[in-house]
Structure formats: C-alpha cells, structure tokens
Amino acid sequence: MNAPAQIFPPRRDLAVWARPRQVGRPGRRRPGRSRRGFTLVEVLATLLLMAIAIPVLMQAVSVALNTAGAAKRKTEAAALAESKLSELVATGDWQTGATSGDFPDHPSYQWSAGVQSWGDGSVEQLDVAITWFERGADQSYVVSTLVYPAVPPAGQQDAAAAASAASSASSASTGTGTSTGKAAGGGK
C-alpha cells in the first residue's frame, strides 16, 4: 500500500533560495559598494580633455583680443585722418601751413599731408596719412580728397559742386571730391 504523500508546510528559509536571482535591479545597490565618486579613468580622461581644450581656447581669446585692438586703432586712425583732412581743407592750411604733426589727445598717432597734381592740373589731390606703431611695425591709414588750388578755403565746396555739375553735363566724368580710406601696414 502506498502511503499518502505527506504535505509539509513551506519553509521560509528555503523560499529565499528558490527565487530566481535578479541582477542589476534599478534602485538597489549591493551592500559594501557605493557609487558616489568618479573612477580614476574618468578623472584622467577629463584632465586629458581639459589639457587639450584650454590652450586652444586661450589662443582663440588672445587672437580675438589682438584683432579687436587692431580694429580699434585703425578706427581711431580713420577718424583722425578724416578730421585732419576736413580741417586742412576748411582752413586752407594744405596750401601754406604745416604738412605734418601729431595729435595732442592721441600721442601715438602722427599725421602728414601731401599734395599732388591730378588730372589736367586744375585740381590737386590732397592726401592725409596717419601713422602709428603697432606690433613692431609702422602702420598707416590714408584718406584723400580733391581740392582746387586757386580757390580760397571758403569756396572749396562751391568749386567742387560747380565742377561736379560741369563734369556730369559732359560725358567724360573723372570723379568728384570724395575721400577714400586706404590702410597700409608694414606688418600684420
């Protein structure tokens, strides 16, 4: 005869071992292993990246500052050149006065003026050059305008308007008394 199977109540200590093991459950850490810091490899990789990136960024900042400084000096030179050109034309000093000097408010800039014949000789070209020293070389900025040597300073604008009207009436127009800026430098 077969004996009826005995049914034992389940034991709690065996139930723990009978469950399948879950590996890497989120939100659960293994005892004794904290994950709060960086590994040595992560720290070394970050230091290597910073060692490469920081010098490149510093070089870019240095180039940008140098370019901004050069642009500022060139802008100042252009403003000084236009101002001096207007002063020379308005006072007539380009015919009889000084043809070089400096600016009391801007001691690093010097100016020089020159006159040369233009066209048929009834008009002359007045050039004003501003020079300054930058990065081991002389830099310059030149503006020019056309002037009438036989006309007094007060009549320069009237003479320019009359010449412009006469040249526009003819088909062979050679230009008017406008100024142009030219930058020239001995270095970069």
Radius of gyration: 42 Å
Largest sheet: 5 strands, antiparallel
Q: What is the chain-wise order of helices and strands?
A: HHHEEEEHE
What class do helices, strands and sheet pairing give? alpha+beta
Q: Whole-number average pLDDT?
A: 78
Query: Approximately what portion of the residues adopt beta-strand conformation?
Result: 15-25%
Put simply, the count of helices is: 4
Strand order of the largest sheet: 1-2-3-4-5
| E-strand count | 5
- Summarize the amount of helix as a percent range: 40-55%
Verbal overview:
With 188 residues, the chain is an alpha+beta fold. The protein has one domain. The protein has 4 helices and 5 strands; from the N terminus they run αααββββαβ. A 5-stranded antiparallel sheet has the order 1-2-3-4-5, with helices on one face. About 6% of the residues have low confidence.
SSE order and pairing:
Blueprint: H1 12-18, H2 40-91, H3 93-96, E1 100-103, E2 106-118, E3 123-134, E4 137-147, H4 156-169, E5 181-185
Antiparallel strand pairs: 1-2, 2-3, 3-4, 4-5
Question: Quick summary of this structure?
Answer:
By secondary structure, the chain is an alpha+beta fold. The chain contains four helices and five strands; from the N terminus they run αααββββαβ.
Features:
about 40% helix; alpha+beta; five-stranded antiparallel beta sheet; about 25% strand; single chain; about 190 residues
